[in-house]
Amino acid sequence: MGESGCGKTTLARAVLLLTPPTSGAIEFEGVDITQLPKNEVRQLRSKMQIIFQDPISSLDPRMRVRDIVAEPLVATGQKNHDVILGKVRSILDKVGLSSDAMSRFPHQFSGGQRQRIGIARALVCDPHFLVLDEPTSALDASIQAQVLNLLRRLEKDLRLSSIFISHNINVVCYMSDRIAVMYAGEIVETAPTRQLLGKPLHPYTQTLLASVPRTDPSQRRSDEKIVGEQPSPVNPPPGCRFHPRCPYAFGKCKSVKPDHVTVDTNRWVACHLLTG
What we know:
By secondary structure, the chain is an alpha/beta fold. The chain has helices spanning 8-15, 38-44, 65-75, 81-94, 111-123, 141-158, 169-175, 193-198, 203-210; strands spanning 27-28, 31-32, 48-51, 129-133, 161-165, 178-183, 186-192, 260-264, 267-270. The model has no long low-confidence stretch (mean pLDDT 90).
């Protein structure tokens, strides 16, 4: 999670090699996929899928639903027509759409139904890993809840791992076992969800969580706010990227980039306040 423009989508696209990474490694099932030839990466595509943010622009308006959902199967080499139709019917049923939807076009469905079509397309190849790029942000609040519950059920039933991207903190907390907080192109803190919510360590995480509206007026909220604007990841400030907006910044923060400090099992944070 993080502010708009912090690099969440770029990172997710790089994980899937939709945006070529400029350095580093991306390991999927124990293999650095950045070192694989293109033909082997193509074979992995069925195991790595993405659900896009906008269900309108991500579906071809000229294609019927059966062809939209079947496209990943065809692209990965499935040629048996009966097998393809059987898989399409099965996955449409799993996402709550009847077989009657197969012959219709995207514009004949509501926003929530279109997103279900996008989910079906991503799942039809039985992937092991999903990237969900703000999959509910274009939907009404009531429909958001339905789609989120559907995604949670499918992840459990199909035993999927996923990266869920959002700037909506409540949605991230509901969907995630573990949270990574991004700021200006970098992950500044990562921890299991309960630990991060119970005791955020990075000043940016603290102010980010403090900004979440509370429905219970008895729960006092910190008046601390993030001032200023997020810097461009292309031209970040020296040292800690958050220091121009951090209320606790001191001399070292302005010149030395903080290392990732392991705080607890499966938890680390990049902040000089923890090391002095």
